[in-house]
């Protein structure tokens, strides 16, 4: 009888030890799951920030494109004005001395138009440079987003 009691006591102690070990495993697993959820939330937040930045850059890019189109229209209009002024200048040179004031005025307008054309070309060059920079930023953000997506997928697969 005494041997049975010792056997039962030993079995009880073994079960207590096993229960403590299992409780530790459950606690560790729970801590790990909490960590994974936390990391998943952080990844999602980063992904959302990157998406917002991507959208903002895309909007800026669209604005630059629209600005570029507007500047190109202005250049075309200025070029048309220059052509028109050159035609007027040629006609004016054929007229008599009485029209010389009109010729001088046309030359001043031509100079102003050429300055404006030069400025517009410079503005387009600047816009194109900014467009290229924005495209590089978008490319970098897309790469970063892809890396984050792969990390998230990897962590999701690891959880399974």
UniProtKB/TrEMBL annotation:
Residues 61-151 form a coiled coil. GO terms for cellular component: HULC complex; nucleus. Transmembrane segments: none annotated. Keywords: Chromatin regulator, Coiled coil, Metal-binding, Nucleus, Transferase, Ubl conjugation pathway, Zinc, Zinc-finger. GO terms for biological process: chromatin organization; protein ubiquitination. Its main location: nucleus. This is E3 ubiquitin protein ligase. It comes from Stephania japonica.
């Amino acid at each position: 009888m005494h041997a049975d009691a010792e056997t039962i006591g030993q079995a009880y102690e073994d079960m207590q030890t096993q229960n403590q070990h299992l409780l530790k495993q459950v606690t560790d697993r729970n801590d790990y799951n909490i960590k994974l959820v936390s990391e998943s939330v952080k990844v999602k937040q980063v992904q959302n920030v990157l998406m917002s930045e991507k959208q903002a850059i895309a909007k800026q890019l669209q604005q630059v494109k629209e600005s570029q189109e507007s500047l190109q229209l202005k250049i075309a209009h200025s070029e048309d004005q220059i052509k028109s002024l050159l035609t007027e200048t040629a006609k004016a040179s054929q007229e008599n001395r009485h029209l010389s004031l009109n010729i001088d005025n046309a030359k001043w307008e031509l100079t102003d138009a050429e300055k404006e054309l030069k400025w517009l070309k410079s503005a387009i060059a600047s816009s194109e440079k900014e467009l290229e920079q924005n495209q590089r930023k978008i490319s970098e953000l897309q790469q970063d987003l892809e890396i984050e997506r792969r990390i998230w997928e990897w962590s999701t697969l690891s959880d399974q």
